[in-house]
Amino acid sequence: MKPRTPFTLPGALLMLLLPAAAFAHQEAGQAAGFLAGLEHPVSGLDHMLAMVAVGLWGAVLGQPAIWMLPVAFPLMMAMGGLMGLLGFPLPGVEIGIAASAIVLGAMVMTERRLPLRAAVVITALFAIFHGHAHGAELPEGASALMYSLGFVMSTGLLHAVGIALGTLHGWSAGRRAVRAAGGGVALAGLFFMWKALA
Amino acid sequence: MRRSAPAVIAFALALFAAPAQAHLASTGFGDFYDGIAHVLITPEDLLVALAVGLLAGQRGSRATRFAVIALPLAWLAGGLMGARWSPLPSQLVVLTTATFALTGALVALDARLRDAAIIAIAIAAGLLHGLANGPTMTPSGIGTQGLIGAVCAVAVLVLLLSSQVNALVPGWQRIAVRVAGSWIAASGLLMFGWLYHTAR
Question: Is A11 a domain residue?
């Protein structure tokens, strides 16, 4: 018999992370926290579109990229954030972020099926730029761990939005819509690039 | 369907959880319950319990049984040591961060670890986080009852989570577990950066 495995309970346990301003241990007294981190990735259209494009591209590529990209992205993004916090300079961060929207959007639009390793490397490379920008912008006084959690979860949920939209790819009309969405992300990326270079 | 109802209610209640502002939670129900609340509102403690639960669940029922025993017992031992030897070195936070960051990374990688490795991770995590909890579990704090409450909370969390993960069929649900692991690891990495940033 197939075991019943309701995922609601682990989901509920994860949601217990929501007590936003849980100031405990070493971060005691530091303000902001989870909600600030949750809000940060959606506060910039350049970040948001690139994150959704990662999910869209994963959905277009299918298994196993559909889960490998969303697993790799947060880890490499955190690596970028770590670099930002440690003070490692990363030249052309804004250009890198704009390029991520252009490249990822173009990949979705053209339904480019790169080898899995190449797809992961491209995504991871861009994740470093996104993470560096966020890490360097970590507000003073923020509850660091809760901020980081919110930030990472928000990014992951944006990937999930992309993956959900990418499931439309299975239908012919949906496929056109997904490709159009990729084109839109790439166009927006060009605008961000123009702004970064101006 | 009926079995998932409490989880759905817990999910909804968690959405409306009030911000916790204190180092030690005061539930008004006594030290034991304060200890339970302490684990649930302390992100480092909660994350390590979740990460160990996910890791053990990925590795099967034997690993789950070992982790459910090893983590709470090590937490208890660490808590008793921490209560006796406080104040503790400030560098302990680096080690507690490392435990959940590394465990989260192992979950993300779906690392095929042996049972002995799961036990070692659970013991290391329990000892370090118990030690960090220790100073708040002194008689002037919430005492031994609080520590027992914290240990019970950890045991129940790991038991529920690991058994659920263990029962998952291959597919998107197991992928979600790996994604959760990557989130935990990523949060830990950012926390390292923050610790360095604030220490400068």
Answer: no
Tell me if A85 sits within 8 A of A136, measured CB to CB: yes
Mutate to test the interface with A, among B15, B47, B189 (most CBs of A within 10 A): B189
Residue of A nearest to B101 (CA): A75
Nearest to B11 among A8, A67, A149 (CB): A8
Instruction: Give the number of domains in chain A.
Output: 1
> In which domain, by residue range, is A152 found?
31-197
Query: Is the complex ipTM more than 0.95?
Result: no
- Per residue in B143-181, pLDDT tens? 788 889 999 999 999 999 999 998 888 777 888 899 999
Domain spans of chain B, in order of start: 27-199
Distance CA A132, CA B113 (A): 32
A contact test, residue of B39, B183, B196 with most A CBs within 10 A: B183
d(CA A147, CA B193): 13
- How confident is the model over A15-25, as pLDDT tens digits? 555 544 443 34
Query: Which CATH number does the domain housing residue A129 bear?
Result: 1.20.1250
A161 touching chain B per CB within 8 A: no
**CA B71, B73, B76: angle at the middle one, nearest 5?**
110
CB B15 to CB A77 under 8 A?
no
**Weakest mean pLDDT among A157-161, B16-20, B22-26, B76-80:** B16-20
